[in-house]
Design goal:
This protein has 13 helices and 14 strands. The chain has 389 residues and is of the alpha/beta class.
Length: 389
C-alpha cells in the first residue's frame, strides 16, 4: 500500500520575529501580522485548519482541523536555501557568505574571463530597481548585470534578446563553479528580463544552489526506495540531490495546479512544493495587498487539495523564513514559521507549541514513512504526538 506525504512551503510567510531577530536587523518583523491588515485577505480554509491557533498568532477557532506548531529556525541565516535545508533536516551552524559591498575583484575578474562579458553594477540591489538603473547600459554594451542582496546570492540579470535564457543559465553554471569554498554562496540566480524600458522580469528565473553539506530527508527517502517529487524551486534549492522527479512552475497558481494533478496520481513517497511568489513578487516589493491577495488565491486552490487527499495522506503546510512587506527593508526577515499538519490519520487540534527547529518537520516525515530519523538527519519527530491511533 502506498503512503503519500505532501509539504507546501509558503515561501516567506513568517509569523513573528525570532529572539535573535535584532542581530539580523529584523526587530519587530511579522509577515502574517502585516498581511492581516489588508482587506484583500480571505483565508477561511487556513483559519479552519488552525493557522491563527498557533501560539502568538491570535484569533484562533475552537476546533481546528489540523494540528499546529510555531517553528523556530535553528540555522544561522534567513534565506530560502538555509530554511529549506533545515526543513529537510540539515541545520546550518554558520552563515553563508554575504557581500554587502559587492563581490571581490578576484570573483568578478574570473567571471568576466570565463564568460567573455564585462560585469556592471556589482552592488546590493533590489531586483526590480537594478534593471531600471542598469538595463539600458546592458542593452548598449552586452555587459552582465551582477548584483546581490542581504542573502547569500550572486544574481545575474540579462535581457532575453541580448542573452538567450539558456546562455544565461550557462553563465550561472560558470559562476556556480567559481563560487565555492569561502565564497560558496547559497544560490546563483538567473534573473532574465524582457521588453522595452521600463523592463519586466520574466518567469524564466532559475536558481543554482550549492549542494547541501549533509544528507537530507530527500536523500534518505530516495535511498529507501520512496519517490521524492519536487514542485517549483525545490529541485534548484537542493541542487537535485535526492529528488526522483521534478516539475517546474511559473507561478503560485501553476504550482498548485501541478500539486493538484499529482494528488490524483498514485505514488509512494514525498511531494515537496515551493510557492515562491509570496516572496519574490510581494514580500520583496513591500506589497501588502498583493501578498494578501496571493494568500487568498492559495486558500481557494487549497480547497481542492483538501477535498482530494486520500485516507492515508498527510499534508504539511509551512514556511522557510519571513519577508515582512510592512517594514522599510525589502529583504527576508528572521521569523518563526507556521506549521500545520493534517490528514485522516492525524489528530485534530494538537498544539505542538514552539519547536526548536524546522528540522522537526524532516524528522517527522521520515518517521511517517517508517524510517527512524535519529542519526540520519537533525530534528525531533512529533509524529507520535499527532498520529491517530
Amino acid at each position: 500500500m502506498s503512503k503519500r506525504l505532501f509539504i507546501i512551503v509558503l515561501d516567506s510567510l513568517g509569523i513573528g520575529e525570532l529572539p535573535d531577530a535584532k542581530k539580523y536587523f529584523d526587530k519587530g518583523s511579522n509577515t502574517l501580522k502585516a498581511i492581516r491588515t489588508s482587506k484583500k485577505l480571505n483565508i477561511s480554509n487556513l483559519i479552519k485548519l488552525g493557522l491563527y491557533n498557533i501560539d502568538g498568532v491570535g484569533g484562533g477557532i475552537s476546533a481546528p482541523m489540523a494540528s499546529y506548531a510555531k517553528m523556530a529556525e535553528k540555522s544561522q541565516g534567513k534565506d530560502t536555501t538555509v530554511g529549506h535545508w533545515e526543513i529537510a533536516g540539515v541545520v546550518s551552524d554558520s552563515p553563508m557568505p554575504v557581500y554587502p559591498n559587492g563581490f571581490p575583484d578576484e570573483i568578478i575578474l574570473e567571471f568576466e574571463k570565463r564568460t567573455g562579458r564585462k560585469v556592471i553594477c556589482n552592488k546590493t540591489y533590489s531586483g526590480t530597481e537594478v534593471i531600471k538603473d542598469y538595463g539600458l547600459e546592458h542593452l548598449k554594451t552586452g555587459a552582465l548585470i551582477v548584483y546581490t542582496s542581504a542573502d547569500s546570492v550572486f544574481q545575474i540579470a540579462a535581457h532575453e534578446d541580448i542573452v538567450p535564457v539558456e546562455k544565461l543559465y550557462s553563465y550561472c553554471q560558470i559562476a556556480r563553479k567559481i563560487l565555492i569554498g569561502k565564497h560558496g554562496v547559497g544560490r546563483v540566480i538567473a534573473r532574465p528580463f524582457s521588453g522595452e524600458y521600463p523592463f519586466i522580469r520574466t518567469a524564466n528565473r532559475r536558481d543554482f544552489s550549492i549542494n547541501p553539506p549533509k544528507k537530507t530527508m530527500l536523500e534518505v527517502l530516495s535511498e529507501n526506495g520512496f519517490s521524492v517529487l519536487s514542485v517549483g524551486k525545490i529541485y534548484d534549492i537542493f541542487a537535485g540531490v535526492g529528488i526522483t522527479e521534478s516539475f517546474k512552475t511559473k507561478s503560485n497558481s501553476d504550482g498548485m495546479r501541478v500539486l493538484n494533478d499529482l494528488i490524483k496520481r498514485d505514488f509512494n513517497g514525498l511531494c515537496f512544493v515551493n510557492l515562491v511568489e509570496f516572496d519574490s513578487k510581494y514580500g520583496h516589493r513591500n506589497d501588502i495587498d498583493g501578498y494578501a491577495n496571493a494568500l487568498t488565491e492559495f486558500d481557494d486552490d487549497l480547497r481542492f487539495t483538501l477535498e482530494n487527499l486520500k485516507d492515508d495522506d498527510v499534508l504539511i503546510i509551512t514556511a522557510d523564513h519571513g519577508c515582512d512587506p510592512s517594514t522599510p527593508s525589502t529583504d527576508h526577515s528572521r521569523e518563526y514559521a507556521p506549521m500545520l499538519i493534517l490528514g485522516n490519520k492525524i489528530k485534530n487540534g494538537v498544539n505542538l507549541k514552539t519547536r526548536n527547529s524546522f528540522a522537526d518537520i524532516g524528522a517527522t516525515v521520515l518517521d511517517y514513512f517508517g524510517i527512524n530519523p535519529n542519526g540520519k538527519i537533525s530534528g525531533e519527530s512529533f509524529y507520535k504526538e499527532v498520529k491517530n491511533g
